[in-house]
Amino acid sequence: MFVKRRQMRMLEVIKCTSKDYGKLVELKKQLSQDEQDVYPLRDAELEASIKRYLSSGYQAVLFVERKNIVGYALVKMNVYPYCLREFFIRREYRKKAYGKECFSRLLDYLRTNTINVDTASKTHMRLGFWKSLGFKPGSIIPARGRN
To answer: How many helices (H) and strands (E) does the chain have?
Structure first.
């Protein structure tokens, strides 16, 4: 009898710096397309938005596997619990458990078991994904076991 083992992914969480603005602009454009924004922002506007977030208590991270960007997250760091503003997984990595793994790695990176999800953002209205992680609308739920 053979038991199929899940292959361990070489997934890294990398803190974004100003050198990553171009990557974040491209990812935010994909997010905007997925959300079917009626008034998508131009590249310069997206970059200005990213700069505003990162200078006002937010941190952006990239999820990277073997030099390939899987997605990103934008987290408000100057509140407790932290607040997840944006969480995006590129289309080619969806439906392959990358979302759950990236979220778990994000919590490890942040050294927390609890995070608030900004429900005002359309990215977080995909309730099936968030419900699968144990979240309930309008609440702050421990994402994993309690400390």
So the answer is: 4, 6
